[in-house]
Design a protein that fits this description.
The protein is of the alpha/beta class. About 35% of the residues lie in helices and about 20% in strands.
């Protein structure tokens, strides 16, 4: 039985915590509204964005998950959530003399600056141009420089229950949409939870994983496919200038090499499951 702490016990953190608690581990979850944390996760009230916002942490922690959610899409919110939040968490672990087996940090594929359709993996150069990727990369570097064994998971675009942006875009009648051809990398919410739980169970882990499914897709093709599945008129298809792709395509070979098997290996499988649950 291991002692596990989830810093940022929202949707993903709660689901991971419930899985690990069901497996017989002691799991604590921290968030500002601790009363919203369901059992059997043990609630802790705290705010890791403040240097004095953390309670005394449970002793002898085996694994710590850091799963932040910024309050807004703004530089200051990302700095507080990811950079300040992780810094305060690492400092609290050091003060408490903790020696966790690993600290798992949830990051994003936005740390890559590629915007020409190229393939990227865990060894690719990171050169983010937007504040979101810059702050996440800054937090990754904090973990790498800490005394704790760190594991970074860079998730692509998460979809699933409560994360239905593209479905809403089609339902609201986005017709005649003409955006530039841009690649998007998706992962179902249940696979995010599955991968994070899987990493706890591994004896040996890599320091970095890309959390995406098997098939990048051009966004306009995703929208057109969704419209077809929903029996709606498809959004407009943009012109396809030769060689003018944008975005990036993420490889998930390391995810597969870890032994994890995707519940939803591509967007079709995942979105069909989501539509069937409506």
């Amino acid at each position: 039985m291991a002692n596990i702490l989830i810093m940022g016990c929202g949707d993903l953190g709660t689901a991971v915590g419930q899985q690990l608690a069901a497996a017989g581990h002691r799991v604590w979850g921290l968030r500002r509204q601790a009363e919203r944390i369901p059992s059997p996760i043990r609630p802790l009230a705290g705010d890791f964005t403040r240097p004095d916002g953390l309670p005394e942490l449970p002793a002898a922690l085996d694994t710590v998950y850091f799963i932040a959610t910024p309050g807004a899409f703004a530089d200051v919110a990302y700095r507080r959530a990811y950079v300040d939040g992780l810094r305060h968490t690492l400092a609290a672990l050091e003060r408490g003399g903790q020696q966790p087996r690993r600290v798992v940090f949830v990051s994003s594929t936005s740390v890559y600056g590629a915007d020409d359709g190229r393939w990227v993996d865990e060894d690719s150069i990171t050169a983010p141009v937007r504040f979101s990727g810059q702050r996440l990369l800054q937090a990754e570097e904090l973990l790498r420089a800490s005394p704790f064994p760190g594991v970074v998971v860079r998730f692509g675009g998460i979809y699933g229950p409560g994360r239905e942006y593209h479905l809403r875009k089609v339902r609201e009648g986005v017709r005649g949409l003409h955006e530039e051809p841009v690649w998007t990398n998706r992962i179902h919410r249940d696979d995010c939870v599955g991968l994070l739980s899987h990493l706890f169970a591994l004896d040996r882990v890599e320091p970095l994983y890309l959390g995406v499914d098997d098939e990048p897709v051009l966004r306009h093709e995703l929208l057109a496919w969704l419209a077809q599945e929903m029996g709606l008129d498809p959004p407009g298809t943009p012109p396809m200038p030769a060689g003018e792709m944008h975005g990036k395509r993420c490889r998930n070979r390391r995810l597969h090499a870890s032994g994890y098997r995707l519940l939803h290996p591509d967007f079709r499988h995942g979105y069909r499951a989501l539509l069937a649950s409506d």
